């Protein structure tokens, strides 16, 4: 027993020395909740081939793997002072299902895996798997702070809101943030589902454009006012025919105003996505508005409204173009801080003409809200506890 304690003490001493030299931090979030949804269907086994949920249909009462407000995750990040104002940095972050302990999706560091250089004056350059410039530029205008449940964040920013094989620049100049990125090739099962076809892995020899992506954003915050604009372009390519890319273009704007405990925000996102044949996959306009109010030092209230005008949708390149009903959703969160790191909450969402958070083919039914054919409304309520470490 004494030997075990001595070994543990020695290990902690070494870890402390390493941390002092490189400023390495272990961090994470665990968010667990219980949810009731009034009526959901069964997701298709292959959302790329078929986006239509099936029976059985009915109410669901369970523990959602995504958590209520935040996706559970753990990570390591650190910096090293190189002198003359420069620092080296890294960040590794992995998402997991809090209810089972399983990885959310493969690989191990599915959320972030980057290395880079930073300078307080010139900004930073990072390489690896990370968020797009559009995500960075608009995320602070999210009514529910990009909540894992009841906010259509993936619908808003796209299934490619996080990309692999990316080079990215981020600069902060006073209240202005400028971000630009280029991905040499990004694709995943979720992204494949969003395009309606199987994708290659990116970085195809002889086909530089296959699955590449790029974008930029500008955001300004000062005197209570916030404004952000962003553009994102992605060229998904089917695995069977390299060099024959599709195209998805998104552009968005967000605005906010903060005074005392009150923050109001709103925004718009344009999307035009096409198959590699040139046929339109989806063309939609997405609008959102929200209010945040810090009622007391411990209690925060968040209200969001989301509207999607789906002008054109086609399941396959040769399918018939349709103009489906426009999804709408209202969501509300009451969040109470028990301490600086722990909070409890209750959240509810009501969706009309669609699933909660617009879950469907474009999200690979990842969030578990498949809507039965002909179903008009869906209601969900979740309550849980979140701890940040």
UniProtKB/TrEMBL annotation:
CDD domains: gram_neg_porins. Its main location: membrane. GO terms for cellular component: cell outer membrane; pore complex. Residues 1-20 form the signal peptide. Gene3D superfamilies: Porin. Residues 7-353 form the Porin domain. Keywords: Cell outer membrane, Ion transport, Membrane, Porin, Signal, Transmembrane, Transmembrane beta strand, Transport. One of its GO terms (biological process) is monoatomic ion transport. Coiled coil: none annotated. Homotrimer. This is Outer membrane porin protein.
